[in-house]
Amino acid sequence: MNQTTESSPEQTRLHEDREGRAAWKKWGPYLSERQWGTVREDYSSNGDAWNYFTHDHAQYRAYRWGEDGLAGISDNRQLLCFALALWNGRDPILKERLFGLTNSEGNHGEDVKEYYFYLDSTPTHSYMKYLYKYPQAEYPYELIIEANRTRNKQAAEYELLDTGIFDEDRYFDVFVEYAKVEPEDILIQITVCNRAPSRPRSKCCLPCGFATPGRGAARKRNRS
Fold first, then answer.
1. Residue 221 and residue 209 in contact, taking contact as beta carbons nearer than 8 Å
2. Using one digit for the tens of pLDDT, what is the confidence trace for 116-150?
């Protein structure tokens, strides 16, 4: 293999970040995909983190010590968060975060019931690419919970694919790409590909969350 001493643009960015000349790593994929059901948000009297702050609660309640989002990014202090909000015209709620089973709901414990892929990322997060597969039919939240809850540990898990929601390719491929021009100049490209034979209705919202953290006090969020 031929060796070269010439630095690539990404190597230059790494050097600049390491030497403190440019904060290339300030922004990155630091936004959690699930803040609900975690010990960070548990203020129950019995330590029941799963049931104190559920996925259903997340659409109504503000988090105290973090944020979450779909294909999101934030600064390294999570003062400003950016993520996707999708709606297929059928779901009762926006798709703003990943859905999954809690420890007691899954026959094999906690488990995310979504299909998403991290396709690319440089070390400084100067380029990132993400793919989320969004069904066009109403998401079967209750069906997945009940089907897994009734299975024992020896049985296979009931997956989203088992519901038939992806039959006839009735879903969207949602690609999200981030590219940094400068450490705090970030370009965002969102590409939604309809894989179904017909043209369904859909919406894509781009919420930004400004969080004011406080020790011992609730975090305040303004969504725009």
1. yes
2. 999 999 999 999 999 999 999 999 999 999 999 89
* DSSP conformation class of 206: -
Nearest CA to 110 among 56, 59, 36, 30?
Answer: 36
Interior angle at CA 215, CA 212 and CA 216, nearest 5: 110
Torsion of CA 147, 149, 150, 156, to 10 degrees: 70
List, for residues 158-209, the tens digit of each pLDDT value: 999 999 999 999 999 999 999 999 999 999 999 999 999 988 776 666 666 6
Residue type, 108: H
pTM attached to this predicted model: 0.86
Report the C-alpha gap between 65 and 1 in whole angstroms.
48
Which 8-state DSSP code applies to residue 52?
H
Q: How many helices (H) and strands (E) does the chain have?
A: 3, 12
Task: Please state the φ and ψ torsions of residue 129, each to the nearest 5 degrees.
Answer: -140, 135
